[in-house]
Amino acid sequence: MSSEIGASHTLDGFPAAAVEFVNAMQRNRERIAEDAGLSASELRAMFRVAAVVSITPKELAAHLDTTTAAITFISRRLVEAGLLHRVAHPNDRRSLYLELTPLAHQMMFEVHRDFVALLEAVTSELGSVGVDRFSSSLRSVARSMAIHATRSENATSHNALRARTVRPASHL
Q1: Which end of the chain, N or C, is more open, meaning fewer C-beta atoms within 10 Å of its C-beta?
Q2: Which DSSP category does 109 fall into?
Q3: Helix (H, G, I), strand (E, B) or coil at 11
Q4: How far apart (Å, rounded) are the C-alpha atoms in residues 3 and 82?
């Protein structure tokens, strides 16, 4: 039996902290979706519509990296729940825009208010200067990651991956 079979794959240092942060954010988003009676995909769609105000199903599908058929299903469910409404496209009678309803605007206001309160509570020990520094660093890392994290740039051969070792700390 190979010694690698059953081995734990973990990270440490900043990568472990980043994974832990992302996992905590994901758990929070899952809780928000569950509290609202929505699926994770429905909540992601709601956040996108809330951010851009008005969006076509095709644009929403591209942003969420899903099919237009999936967006049709999601938007139908959100329309039936009274959270989205369809608005006729002014230049294309075959297309439409998705927008939040007043109920959804209230929901998004409450979600954002609660999220800000949560972050204020969990960063209270940092103080305002520490929070500003952390915010700046987090933005910088996120923007840099968006630029550098393409598949072609990060393609690594299986042999190179096999040669690397990782110290135990945090699971992905």
Answers
A1: N
A2: H
A3: strand
A4: 55
The model's pTM is 0.77
| Unique residue bearing structure tokens 């890392």 | 141
Residue 124 has a CB neighbour count (10 Å cut-off) of 10
Annotate 12-65 with DSSP letters as a single string.
-HHHHHHHHHHHHHHHHHHHHHHHHT--HHHHHHHHHHHHHSEE-HHHHHHHHT
Closest CA to 41 of 70, 20, 3: 70
Q: DSSP labels for 112-171?
A: HHHHHHHHHHHTGGGHHHHHHHHHHHHHHHHHHHHHH--HHHH---HHHHHH----SSEE
Burial of residue 28 (CB within 10 Å: 0-12, 13-18, 19+) is middle
Q: Do residues 96 and 88 lie in contact, with contact meaning Cβ atoms separated by under 8 Å?
A: yes
Question: What does the pLDDT look like over 51-83, one tens digit per residue?
Answer: 999 999 999 999 999 999 999 999 999 999 999
